[in-house]
Specification:
alpha+beta, 254 residues, 14-stranded antiparallel β-sheet, 52% strand, 14 strands, 4 helices
């Protein structure tokens, strides 16, 4: 029995060492699968448990440096626990827990060009949105039937194309705040500045669905300009009878 036990112990130790030294590049396959090919990991160095690389949003060329440090033992129960950072000069990192029936994110801050996000999410969507999207997550916990969230999304210097397509409509800075606990979490949508006033509400569900309802109203002081903006808004929303247009969008947040 002793030789057999020694062989089993050696095999377990060898497997353990292989896992510990597994190259960071193996993460690319997992990220590719989870994002349906929209995000890849390039220039990976280190191991699965401690390494760095660049997240690439496809089909564009936006690259986001990323650094991680993961715990080994939670894998025994099918769970990933990791600390993730996006700036080597900033010691603060986000805490991420991912399992078969849970997602838990704490203290996450990330900023990306909105055009690259739109192109990655919907490559066929002809919406040339511009600006920068900043996400700040204090907490985001998702279970199959429950959300617990405190987060904000800020779209700075936002603009979208108008008609004719060489014109653009400035939206100013658009902000979404989500806070609450339940099967659905909702929050206000509003903006400051820009040529359009935006007021509305967005809701996300634990099941992965998203619903946005907003009223967009031209506020340009130039009558001709306001009329052209109104014509553009009429193409995507329904008139509310008070000079505004109601837009309703349903989709998925994951």
């Amino acid at each position: 029995m002793r030789p057999a036990l020694a062989f089993v112990a050696g095999a377990i130790l060898l497997a353990f060492m292989l896992v510990l030294t597994a190259p960071a590049a193996l993460l690319d396959r997992r990220i590719d699968a989870l994002s349906a090919g929209r995000v890849r990991l390039a220039n990976a160095t280190g191991t699965l448990w401690k390494g760095s690389g660049e997240l690439v949003l496809l089909p564009g060329v936006t690259r986001l440096p990323v650094f991680w440090r993961a715990e080994l033992w939670p894998l025994a129960r099918g769970e990933v626990r990791a600390a993730i950072g996006f700036d080597p000069d900033v010691p603060q990192s986000a805490a991420v827990v991912f399992g078969s029936d849970r997602l838990d994110v704490r203290d996450l801050e990330v900023s990306l060009p909105v055009e690259s996000i739109v192109r990655s999410a919907s490559p066929a969507l002809p919406l040339a949105a511009r600006g920068n999207l900043a996400l700040r997550v204090e907490r985001f916990m998702q279970r199959p039937d429950l959300l617990d969230a405190q987060l904000s999304v800020q779209w700075n210097d936002a603009s979208v194309p108008a008609f004719p397509p060489d014109e653009r409509i400035a939206l100013g800075d658009v902000r979404v705040d989500l806070a609450g606990r339940g099967a659905v979490v909702t929050g206000p949508v509003r903006n400051t500045g820009g040529e359009v006033e935006i007021t509305g509400q967005v809701g996300i569900a634990a099941t992965g669905t998203l619903q946005l309802t907003a009223t967009l109203r031209p506020r340009s002081g130039d009558r001709d300009r306001a009329e052209r903006i109104a014509n553009a808004l009429a193409a995507i929303g329904a008139p509310d009878g008070q000079g505004g247009y109601t837009l309703s969008v349903k989709g998925s947040w994951r």
